[in-house]
Design a protein that fits this description.
The protein is 61% helix and 5% strand. By secondary structure, it is mainly alpha-helical. Strands 3-2-1-4-6-5 form a six-stranded mixed sheet.
Length: 499
């Protein structure tokens, strides 16, 4: 007998773990979890927020931030409970709820198809997967896409007793959230259509596709006040032109050699062995995972979260292998190592890693007033803005847009129906690189060496020895500092000066 708790107890552990992380979370993973979600939702609800360059060129759909605005922020605003901490925790709780429901539904379908032991191990892998747990409660569009995959594959039932309506609903929602989700859902729908030869499924699919495109284009056109198909703009920039290489380039094998290892952790060898041992039984799932990774590998810019939606599929195959191909002794060892690794690593990731930006933002929210003006001389998007400050103040920050004026195609500008109080620098210029190369020269050219317009200055302590004299000369005094991370490349403090 496999030494795992029963399924209900595992579900309870999953829910409690998610709730605990929601409440205790102090770290950030990537800027997108704030600047492509909470900042936009805050603007939609309260009328002001920061919009990155993507929004000014129609590369982003309003669907993702609309979910948080409608479900969380508007109700809190109506109840006059719009505290910055409560708003952000509530959005994470929404993610936790959706993630938990989808995982339970998914695992029940796994149990129906592959048995109770595989069901329990699948849920156990959900609970103990450090990367998945770290990402799924964060307001990332990748996290919502992963939930859609979990719920949609549960509705698909691995090809048996497919609940067509729910399957197509979650497939359509995933593709509306991220256009690259089609890499998973289009082959799966075509496979199901060929396998079942169902005319009804074909009609339903066409209806869902038409509805999804209509809703998406209508929403974006209404919000941008002009005809916009954000997914086309997104694909044009990121895929067809490969302009996303501005944000970093990885080798073609990076998703296979690095990303999967980070996503699956200790279970990485089990997954790769399962691919070769179980390719006959799990041909469809393994093919979908490998096909997705191959297609995504053609893009120059890659991130681990780009394969987050594939982790649940890898869980099922790995769980089946553990149950049917590992000895009881190895099962017991694995059932001890996985939670031990999670307990050792996850608290650091959620509480201490890259927490300086959020700590600084919450501190500023308690210190500033409507008359304040902030100057952020820190890495681009390292400190949250209005979603955490929750007060309309002018902010001058270092911006890092890609050189859109050098593209072979033209991205037309669109209007934003909300106020952005941030002060813009020179368009298409990476100001942070300029600032790092010569801080004093940048200050002289952009601020004329004068900080008198600002009430607060925030910078890294590593730049302090260069700027301390000019800061003190402008009448500022040290107020507080916050450690960002103990990781070697990010081991610095955010230092706050006030006038």
């Amino acid at each position: 007998m496999i030494s795992l708790p029963n399924f209900k107890l595992l579900c309870s552990c999953s829910l409690l773990l998610k709730l605990l992380i929601c409440i205790s979370l102090k770290s950030s993973d990537v800027p997108d979890e704030i600047f492509q979600s909470m900042e936009i939702s805050h603007a939609m609800t309260f009328g002001f927020g920061h919009f990155t360059w993507e929004w000014h060129h129609g590369l982003r759909s309003w669907l993702h931030p609309s979910i948080y605005s409608i479900c969380i922020l508007f109700p809190l605003k109506f109840l006059r409970l719009d505290n910055p901490l409560l708003m952000n925790v509530s959005v994470r709780l929404l993610h936790a709820f959706f993630a938990f429901i989808s995982e339970v539904f998914f695992c029940k379908r796994v149990g129906d198809e592959f048995g109770g032991d595989t069901q329990r191990w699948t849920m156990f892998l959900f609970v103990t997967n450090i990367f998945y747990t770290h990402c799924i409660i964060r307001p990332l569009v990748n996290s919502l896409e992963a939930m859609c995959v979990v719920a949609g594959m549960g509705a698909y039932g691995f090809g048996k007793n497919c609940k067509t309506f729910w399957f197509l609903l979650f497939a359509a929602l995933a593709c509306m959230l991220r256009p690259t989700a089609a890499i998973l859902w289009v082959p799966l729908c075509l496979y199901h259509l060929v396998f079942t030869k169902s005319f009804q499924f074909c009609v339903f699919t066409a209806m869902f596709v038409l509805t999804a495109v209509t809703v998406l284009v209508s929403l974006d056109t209404f919000m941008y006040d002009r005809m916009v198909f954000s997914h086309y703009n997104f694909m044009l920039f990121n895929i067809l032109s490969d302009a996303n290489s501005f944000f970093g380039v990885n080798s073609v094998h990076w998703l296979f050699s690095c990303a999967i290892s980070a996503c699956m952790g200790i279970c990485t060898p089990i997954w790769w062995i399962s691919v070769f041992k179980l390719h006959g039984k799990f041909t469809l799932i393994i093919s979908l995972v490998v096909f997705n990774i191959i297609i995504l590998s053609f893009s120059s810019h890659k991130e681990m979260r780009f394969v987050l939606q594939l982790v649940p599929l890898m869980h099922v195959v790995s769980a089946y292998f553990v149950v049917h191909h590992l000895s009881q002794k190895h099962n017991q060892i694995l059932s001890l190592i996985l939670p031990a690794a999670m307990i050792a690593i996850l608290p650091y990731l959620e509480v201490y890693h890259q927490n300086g930006g959020i700590s600084t933002a919450y501190y500023l929210s308690s210190q500033i007033s409507n008359n304040s003006r902030l100057l952020l001389l820190v890495p681009c998007f390292s400190i949250p803005l209005y979603s955490h400050l929750h007060i309309r103040v002018p902010i001058r920050m270092l911006d890092c847009p890609p050189p859109l004026n050098n593209l072979t195609f033209k991205l037309s500008s669109v209007s934003i129906p909300f106020d952005d109080p941030t002060v813009r620098g020179t368009p298409y210029v990476n100001e942070y690189s300029q600032f790092q190369s010569s801080p004093l020269l940048w200050i002289e050219e952009n601020l004329r060496g004068d900080f008198s317009d600002y009430s607060h200055v925030i910078l890294k302590d590593t730049d302090l020895f260069i700027l301390i004299d000019i800061i003190l000369q402008n009448g500022f005094r040290f107020k507080s500092k916050f450690l960002h991370s103990i990781a070697p490349l990010e081991n610095f403090h955010f230092v706050v000066f006030v006038k």
